Amino acid sequence: MTTQDLLATCWTTAGDAAPGRHDERSPLTLRERAEAAGAAGFKGFGLLYADLVEAEREYGLSGIRSLFADNGLVHVELELLTDWWADGPRRAASDAVRLDLLRAAEALGARDIKIGPDVEDKPWDLEAWAREFATLAAQADDVGARLGIEFLPWSNIKTLHDGLRLVEAAGHPAGGLIIDVWHTERAHTPPAELADVPLSRIVGVELNDADSQVVGTLFEDTVRRRRLCGEGTFDLPGLVTALRRAGWTGPWGVEILSDAHRALPVRDAAEAAFRSAASVLG
Predict the structure, then answer these.
(1) pTM for the structure as a whole
(2) Rounded to an integer, what distance in angstroms lies between the CA atom of residue 195 and that of residue 172?
(3) How far apart, in whole angstroms, are the C-alpha atoms of residue 53 and residue 275?
(4) pLDDT string in tens for the chain (282-residue length)
(5) How far does CA 236 lie from the centroid of its chain?
């Protein structure tokens, strides 16, 4: 792997699909998406659970693996597990998704499984969460993957430092953070602080850009108004330099979520995402 390998995260090639919709599935086939990502130059691909279910029905897991291989996509990321800390019916539903993600991760040789925090931002117990996280990290490790939690400024794990507190408390070497620069910037974390994150705790990195002003809620802004790398106000050179200083060599995820991006033909969307991110990486 070179230091320039780029991974198209799940929304970057999803077409007219977005987080928070009643049906989050991409209207595109996995073949269309994988071919667009590979043609653009991406070496990795992210797949949302809802799309994984559809793709497995259409191609089988071995077919998905072949599709990725045929298009040069060697870094596979699966997402998104939520309610892994819950109990009752929500936990039962989450556990069913967990088993599917673990099974698919093993079959596809996935590099990581991405999980989310509590977006309702309810009171939470660090010790209990760390225990659940460690169990999940061990399960990911058993299938050859790593476990990454993405901190979100509107959730119970709002910042880089909140995320580090959780993964350090959990203590499992397979567990760490997904660092999306949108979330570090919107949480007002200075780019230089990323240089101090232990490399062992960085599972994935996601690049994107945005305007200086948030429009609507943070969730609305992140889903509807992200910009291509270099087209917003983020200090992406500073962020990339800090992450490289921490030891990160990739793959670099590219996560573009916007009304404008969703409206593009998938090949144009993938090409624009790749070209702009590659330019920032130099």
Answers:
(1) 0.96
(2) 21
(3) 30
(4) 345 899 999 999 999 999 999 999 999 999 999 999 999 999 999 999 999 999 999 999 999 999 999 999 999 999 999 999 999 999 999 999 999 999 999 999 999 999 999 999 999 999 999 999 999 999 999 999 999 999 999 999 999 999 999 999 999 999 999 999 999 999 999 999 999 999 999 999 999 999 999 999 999 999 999 999 999 999 999 999 999 999 999 999 999 999 999 999 999 999 999 999 999 999
(5) 18
Element (H, E) at 281: helix 266-281
Rg (the chain; Cα; Å): 17
Residue 189: closest CA among 199, 200, 179, 203: 179
Q: At 228, give phi and psi (nearest 5°).
A: -65, 150
Coil/strand/helix, residue 182: helix
Whether the Cβ atoms of residue 43 and residue 72 lie closer than 8 Å to each other: yes
Question: Sign (positive/negative) of CA torsion 114, 61, 265, 3?
Answer: positive
Per DSSP, the three-state class of 71 is: coil
**Cβ 192 vs Cβ 242: under 8 Å:** yes
* CA distance linking residue 71 with residue 83, whole number of Å: 33
Q: What gap in Å lies between CA 61 and CA 108, rounded to an integer?
A: 7
Closest by CA to 5, choosing from 32, 37, 47, 49, is 37
Q: Residue 35 is encoded by which pair of tokens?
A: 């071919």
Per-residue burial over 137-173, b if 16 or more Cβ lie within 10 Å, else e, is bebbeebebbbbbbbbbbbbbbbbebbbebbeebebe
Domains and CATH numbers, the chain: 6-281 (3.20.20.150)
How many residues appear in the chain? 282
